[in-house]
Inverse folding.
C-alpha cells in the first residue's frame, strides 16, 4: 500500500459550492490515481444482504460499464458492493473502493483480501485519517463522499433503512445522475423509490440503459484539444 | 385554464447536438453535462465561462442584447423535479454567473416546482410535458413588488421546444402585470445532425398554436 493524502479539489478538480458543503477535508488514498482520469465513475451500491437477482444485476451492470470504459465505484461492503467490485475486476476493468474505515483497517473482515487487491491494483479511498476509531455514522458519511467521487450512482437493491439511500439523496443534492433499478422502483413494499423519483432519480431498465450510458461524462483526453470548446 | 402566449421571444447562447456523432457534437454533450452539474471542463467552470461569452455578445451589441442587459431581473426556472434546500439548482447558478458578469441587477427566485414533471430531454416527443403540465406544477412564492418596471428574464439551463417557458410565463405575467418578460437558456438542443460550433448566440421565437410548440431557431 502506498497511502497519500489529498484534498478533494486536488483529486477531483475544483469543487462548486454545493459539492463543497459535505466534502471531507482530506481524502486518503492508496493505489493508482490514474484511474480517476480513465473513464466516467459510476457507483453501484445496495444491500449487504442482497437477493441473488440483485447480485446478478450488480455483476451484469459492472461488466457492461467496464466494456463502456467506465470505472466501477462501490463501498466494499458485503453483498451488492462486493459483487460490483469483483465483477469489474473479473471483466478486466478498474474499480474504486470508498470505505468507511481508515485505509489500514478492513471492514468487513471477509473483504480484507479484496481490499488489499484494490489498494494495490486499483484505487482505495477513505476520508478517515489513519488510526480513526470507526463509528456507525462514518458509513453514511462515506456514502456521501462516494456520491461526490462518482459521476452517477445506481442503487441496485435497498431497504428503507439502507445506507445506500444517503448516497442517493446526496447524488440528487449534487445534481448527479441517480438511477434505481426497475425491480426496486416497482416494489410496492418500498416507499423511498417514489420519493427519489420525485426529486430527480431515474429508473434503470433495459429500455433506459443506453440513455444512461450516453449521459455519462467522458474522462478521456479531449479530442478537440481544448478544455472548453466555445 | 390560463391563457398561454402564442409567441414567446427567447434567446440562447450555446447549442448542443442531441444525437450528432462528430467530435464537436459529442463535445457539446460534455458541455451540456457540465452545465447540468455546474461542473468544469479541464479546470474551467463552464457556466461562469459561458456567462463571460454572453457578456461579450452584449458588449458587441449582439442578438442577446435584445433580451439581456444590466438592469433586467433574472428569474431562475425551477427544475423539472422537486428540489431540497441546499441542492444544486443549475438555472440559479446561471443567474448568479450572469449577474457576476454585469448581466441583470437582481435575481428573483420566485418560482418553485410543486410536483415533479417528466424531463423533456429524456421523454419521447409525444410524451414530453406540455405547457399546461408546467403551468399546473409551478407555484409562485411570495414576492415583493419590483422597485421599477425593469424587464424580467426567465432563465433556464436548456431549452428543447420551449414548453416550460410557455407554461410558466402566465404565472409571471399575472404576478408582474405590464412588465416585459423575456426568456433565455444557456443551451438549446439541436435534435438532428451535427453542429458546426457550440457557441451560437440566437434570439428567436417559440410559437404555441393549437397545442403545438415550435422553436425558431
Amino acid at each position: 500500500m502506498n497511502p497519500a493524502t489529498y484534498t478533494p479539489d486536488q483529486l477531483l478538480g475544483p469543487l462548486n459550492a454545493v459539492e463543497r458543503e459535505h466534502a471531507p477535508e482530506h481524502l486518503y488514498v492508496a493505489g493508482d490515481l490514474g484511474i480517476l482520469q480513465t473513464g466516467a465513475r459510476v457507483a453501484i451500491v445496495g444491500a449487504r444482504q442482497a437477493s441473488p437477482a440483485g447480485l446478478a444485476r450488480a455483476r451484469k451492470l459492472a461488466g457492461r460499464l467496464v466494456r463502456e470504459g467506465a470505472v466501477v465505484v462501490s463501498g466494499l461492503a458485503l453483498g451488492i458492493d462486493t459483487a460490483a467490485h469483483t465483477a469489474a475486476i473479473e471483466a478486466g476493468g478498474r474499480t474504486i473502493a470508498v470505505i468507511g474505515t481508515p485505509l489500514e483497517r478492513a471492514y468487513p473482515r471477509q473483504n480484507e483480501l479484496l481490499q488489499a487487491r484494490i489498494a494495490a491494483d486499483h484505487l482505495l479511498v477513505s476520508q478517515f485519517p489513519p488510526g480513526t476509531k470507526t463509528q456507525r455514522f462514518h458509513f453514511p458519511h462515506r456514502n456521501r463522499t462516494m456520491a461526490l467521487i462518482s459521476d452517477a450512482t445506481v442503487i441496485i437493491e435497498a431497504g428503507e433503512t439502507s445506507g445506500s439511500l444517503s448516497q442517493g439523496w446526496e447524488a440528487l443534492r449534487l445534481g448527479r445522475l441517480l438511477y434505481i433499478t426497475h425491480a426496486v422502483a416497482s416494489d410496492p413494499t418500498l416507499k423511498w423509490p417514489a420519493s427519489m423519483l420525485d426529486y430527480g432519480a431515474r429508473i434503470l431498465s433495459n429500455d433506459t440503459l443506453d440513455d444512461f450510458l450516453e449521459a455519462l461524462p467522458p474522462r478521456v483526453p479531449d479530442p478537440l484539444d481544448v478544455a472548453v470548446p466555445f | 385554464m390560463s391563457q398561454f402566449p402564442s409567441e414567446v421571444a427567447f434567446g440562447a447562447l450555446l447549442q448542443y447536438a442531441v444525437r450528432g456523432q462528430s467530435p464537436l457534437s459529442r463535445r457539446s454533450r460534455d458541455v451540456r453535462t457540465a452545465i447540468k452539474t455546474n461542473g468544469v471542463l479541464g479546470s474551467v467552470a463552464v457556466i461562469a465561462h459561458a456567462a463571460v461569452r454572453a457578456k461579450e455578445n452584449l458588449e458587441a451589441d449582439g442578438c442577446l442584447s435584445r433580451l439581456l442587459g444590466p438592469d433586467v431581473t433574472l428569474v431562475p426556472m425551477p427544475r423539472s423535479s422537486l428540489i431540497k434546500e441546499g441542492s444544486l439548482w443549475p438555472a440559479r447558478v446561471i443567474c448568479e454567473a450572469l449577474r457576476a458578469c454585469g448581466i441583470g441587477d437582481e435575481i428573483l427566485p420566485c418560482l418553485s416546482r410543486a410536483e415533479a414533471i417528466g424531463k423533456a430531454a429524456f421523454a419521447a416527443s409525444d410524451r414530453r410535458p406540455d405547457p399546461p403540465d408546467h403551468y399546473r406544477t409551478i407555484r409562485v412564492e411570495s414576492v415583493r413588488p419590483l422597485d421599477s418596471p425593469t424587464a424580467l428574464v426567465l432563465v433556464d439551463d436548456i431549452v428543447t421546444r420551449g414548453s416550460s417557458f410557455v407554461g410558466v410565463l402566465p404565472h409571471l405575467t399575472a404576478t408582474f402585470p405590464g412588465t416585459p418578460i423575456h426568456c433565455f437558456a444557456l443551451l438549446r438542443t439541436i435534435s438532428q445532425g451535427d453542429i458546426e460550433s457550440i457557441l451560437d448566440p440566437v434570439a428567436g421565437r417559440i410559437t404555441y398554436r393549437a397545442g403545438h410548440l415550435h422553436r425558431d431557431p
Observations:
- The first strand of chain A starts at residue 4 and ends at 6.
- Chain A has one domain: 4-215.
